[in-house]
Design brief:
The chain has one domain: predicted glycosyltransferase like domains (Thrombin, subunit H, Beta Barrel), CATH 2.40.10.220. A hairpin with a 2-residue loop joins β1 and β2. The radius of gyration is 14 Å and the shape is globular. It is mainly beta. The protein is 10% helix and 45% strand. The chain contains one helix and six strands, in the order ββββββα.
């Protein structure tokens, strides 16, 4: 039995981070935490429901990153996968963050 879910995954290297900010969709803003990030997108955990479908345009607002434009690619259990808008300067902002501010995040608990 072959399982083909047709899931498109990020091919850029992901780096774990703990950046707090907000996700804005239309007129609604929700508190969020960026879990991991690459030059092409990010995974975000949101604190309250955001009723936005895949393909919806959102803004990510964070002090460390500024305002980033993106498109929701997936949503599951309070987490969002956001691909950066290729027409924005999001990739340059993220590259700058990685170059000057990023500190590697390691799990707090060990086994």
């Amino acid at each position: 039995m072959q399982r083909n879910l047709n899931i498109i995954t990020r091919k850029a290297e992901r780096k774990g981070c703990r950046i707090f900010g907000k996700v804005r969709y239309l007129t609604k803003e929700v508190d969020a935490r960026i879990l991991d990030m690459s030059l092409t997108g990010m995974a975000v955990e949101i604190r309250s429901p955001l009723h936005a479908a895949s393909g919806s345009r959102v803004q990510i607002l964070a002090d460390d990153l500024g305002t980033l434009q993106g498109i929701i690619r997936w949503s599951h259990n309070g987490r969002l996968g956001i691909q950066f808008d290729p027409n924005s300067n999001a990739q340059a902002q993220v590259a700058s963050y990685f170059r000057f501010f990023h500190k590697e995040v390691r799990p707090v608990l060990s086994r």
